[in-house]
Fold this sequence. Notes:
Chain A is of the alpha/beta class. In chain A, helix 8 runs parallel beside helix 20 (636-646), helix 8 (329-343) crosses helix 23 and helix 13 (436-443) runs parallel beside helix 15 (479-489). Chain A starts with a strand and ends with a helix. In chain B, 45% of the residues lie in helices and 11% in strands.
Amino acid sequence: MADVTFTVDGKKLTAPAGTLLIDACRTAGIEIPAFCYYPGLSLQAACRMCVVRIEKMPKLQTACTTPVAEGMVVQTETEEVKQSRKAVLELLLGNHPLDCPVCDAGGECELQDMTFKYGAGESKYIETKQHREEQKWSPVVYFDRPRCILCYRCVRVCGEGMDVWALGVQNRGVTSVIAPNGGDHLGCEECGMCIDICPVGALTSDTYRYKTRPWEMNHVGTVCTHCGDGCKTTLGVKRSNDGMEIVRGDNRDKSGINNDFLCIKGRYAFDFANRTDRLTTPLVRQADGKLAPVSWEEALTFAANKLNEVRSNRGGNAIGVIGSNRTTNEENYLLQKFARGVLGTNNIDHHRTADYAAFAAALKGKANREASLRDFISAPAMLLLGNDPTEQHPALAWQIRSNVRQNRARLYVANHREIKLRRQAKAAVELPQDGYASFISYLAGNDGAFTGNDANDFREALRKEESLVIAFGSEFRGRDIQALVEFGLSMPNVKFACLGDYSNSRGAADMGLLPDLLPGYVPVASEHKFAEETGIEWPKQPGLDLVQMLDAAGSGEIGALYVVGANPVARYGVDPSALKNTFLVVQDMFLTETAVLADVVFPAANAYEKAGTITNTYGDLQLVKKAADKAGVRSDFELIVRLADKMGADPKKLVPFGKGVRADFGQSRGAQSGEADRHAVWLSANHLEPKLSPFDPFAIFDEIQRLVPSYNVPRLNLLAGNDEHVKSELVQIDTTGSRRDLVLPANDGLYTSGTLGRYSDKLAEVLASKTTEIAETAAD
Amino acid sequence: MPKLVSHPDEVRIISRRFGTGAENIDKYVELDGYKAAQLCIEKGPEFIINEMKASGLRGRGGAGFPTGLKWSFVPKNVDRPKYVLVNGDESEPGTCKDHLIFLHDPHAIIEGTIIAGLAIGAKMGFIYLRGEYRYLLKIMEKAVADAYAKGYLGKNIFGSGIDFEVVTQTGAGAYEVGEESALMESLEGKRGVPRIKPPFPAVVGLYGGPTVINNAETIASVPHIFLMGGEAYAKVGSERNGGTRLFGISGHVEKPGVYELPMGYNLKKAIYEVAGGVLGGKKLKAVVPGGSSTPVLTADELDVGLDFDQMGKAGTMLGSGGIVVLDETVSMVEFALRTISFYQHESCGWCIPCREGTDWLKKTIGRVYAGGGVEKDLDNIKYLAENMMGRTFCPLGDAAAMPTIGFIKKFRHEFEEYVRGNAGVSPAEHDAALVSLG
């Protein structure tokens, strides 16, 4: 729409016609207070805090409902306006319990902030405050009713944002109270958005309430370690007696790919880190067959000697390596480099949840065809094939819903299940479970490939779209992905997203945790720069994949397995006795089904306890920052380097620390106390920061950026904590993709998260409550 | 059936069929019923709106917006269906006029609805009665059924080729749904809270369609305008206030009842002549002139014409036409408490100033009345009411604040008596009154 010019507090402003005055003011840096107004949700105009004086209007007007108009003259802080706001606060404080000293929100409460600004220090009433008992609505949500100021943000975010509609209003007038539509319980998706959005301390979470004060925590912005969406999250950490403990997960930084959103896992399922059964000392299997705690020196030496022995006696091909889909890109890169360069084997793989290799091959040389999660915020049309984002990719589901609601985007859903997002769909088709490939053929114009109700209308509507993002689940593998991409490219302006599980499944594939492909999907047999750059010999024969490795271990062909942050025994249902003759080294947080069989177990740090980068399933590269700390554990990065060192490898070849340092330390003297160190920023931007430690993941990141062209993204923005999309078109690969049975979707729901999820007490509790809920419903 | 009253000064237009048995469709037709509708079908929308504008009819719900103008705001060419909505949620304390129309002349409502529908091109009308008027619903429903049977409603009304449907509905007992947008929410089956405006109902109303919503009395006046002609109707009233109005005069008067008087009729005359003066010859203390939300007038302020403009100049409002007369025995503090208790109870709770403000007003005035007040409370009452005024989401906040400001300004001395403990009301009387207020 055309721009209009108007005046606010004497400043001339310009904004598109139709912009709400409150948004226009905030964009211009003029703060308009509001409790009920929340960008992206429907207008409420209930709190009356955003009133302003507009010339030629008889009464004060609410800035949240007034669109800007040409020539409008607005005053936002007159005495009249301030008095009006103060009066509202006086009314609220009349009933609001002033229990700020013990309230979770104390210190980060909007009612406090506004009272501080507008003042309402004098109490005008002597009547007792209305009191109501606190209620527990779910395993994670508590409602302290008297604290509620009835801004209805929770009601709207639950209904409009989440499409759950678990909250409503009971009674009327001064007895109005927010209440679950289910009576005494929410029966919702437990996302905690209602708690996040509450301007006061009325809604609190079971995990955080009465635990600490906001100012006693450090707040570290990092990325969630659960699903493949990679939501930005802020962890509140506090000193504990064995390190730094995470006490809160929330989303105070709304700049991430998830915007306002965080699901139950991001918000509450950090508690695995604080479990009492975490491993904090290395374990080695003793002569009596039992695992016993030993020193780091002993464990590392023992593991290194054993691995050396297998390598010398039987060759690298007798060793297998299984990586993780939650470790960082740097760790994954390092692990494959260690496997190939130190162990001398291409027997390396990980639990594949999507066929990223086939996807990379299909997009080869096609610039700007891979969708970021951000594309789903603004795409005019979206096609969802397979998958159930509500359960498996909650942030994607949030963005799709927001896009449909706010931008009237059109959603097309083809699925073999009745997924919840069908409610937002403009058109939907139900497919047979194995009908995806034929449906794509149908969409591509092959009329005979598919028959089904509404399929024709679906195809007709879809073909009219001029700009489309396509998200597909693990139902698509190998040649099906190729066919899908071919169909998609027949339409204008199309982008694709391949949906896989876990926080860094994509990174594991991108970084070459594959038996036949090096980082960046370079075939092991081809000519490549890796050997030249690193000075290490890389084997040229493709190795065994994960299933083959497990079989080979059972048959004795593999003598040693090195498992980093994975639990193949549980995931692939391996018979424990099959591994009894294999020397097994495991790095993990817990004594998992796999670790319990190991000869050596190293206690590992999790993603909240280390730094690095991870890549979500959409190819959004993000920085992980160290938030928590636990005495006794080491990062996988450090463990790999130390193991290699003990095996006699040159750590400097493995991690190029100190390499390429051309820093001119002299120029840094320009930075005075309190002044931004512009020189340091310049150094960072030019990849010149000195890497002085062999445990510095950014030394490896330098190498990744040099050798994997798709990861050569602008670094300044990344290091500032923002997301950068990898350039998938730079990948050079021809493959039909993984064997179909190698891709094993995690099938996690909202309350599960693979092995990691089983070590979250909160997730377990919520999951148990859901099971009873379902049972109770069935009994009705 | 309530007894009807009469007075020679009355000009009986809307009430001309009251008591004649016109709830029977044949009787209604005999008394010129449905003639106006047929005339309007013949002449078309432009004629209707011009006549309506000429009549000077202003909304009888209380706000007094010119009806013809309101109808002309409805966009002509839209894809969405348009609706006519009759607001029969008559809930303002002191008001009982629509009640009589539903009781005695339900077909006038139907006929007015048809004409409004013709004017804006709607094919459907809704007649919404307040929840407490459930007993009138039977009469209204029978009237609608009879009109359908005669072919005055439904497909091809009066053989004109035009279709028009009418549906009746009752509320669930909330004053708030008398506000037009809250009524639409209620009619749509939702919580009765008002909507954000703009968009106004004429553009986006019921079920998202352009909607004309009028008070029941306004709609019942419409057929008469076409029987008399717009100009003739306008001449009955005062300047810019066409026609007549049903005034419900209640309280301490000799002959309480609903009288139809021309717009602009003198208030003092209405009380002392039409309604027979103050009951038992006592002294008049105050008059609430147009339903409980209108600021009170003292005995010295009664020489004023009953129309929207003159009442506005007198610092109050014509409102809903419910005149409540209070004699010298009335405690204005108790009356203020009774009034604010109503609004506190009826506040929907949507916005902060109304939800919290009405409650604190009730608590503070209640405490003053119970003898626990201090001087500062009186300033607080005024402060609270003034800070609600014009700041709430819908007019309910104003409706609670306006009379309160009036009471405290004009009868502050009575409040002061209470604060000083000189009110002469026994503790037992206080307690009984407070208990009855909940």
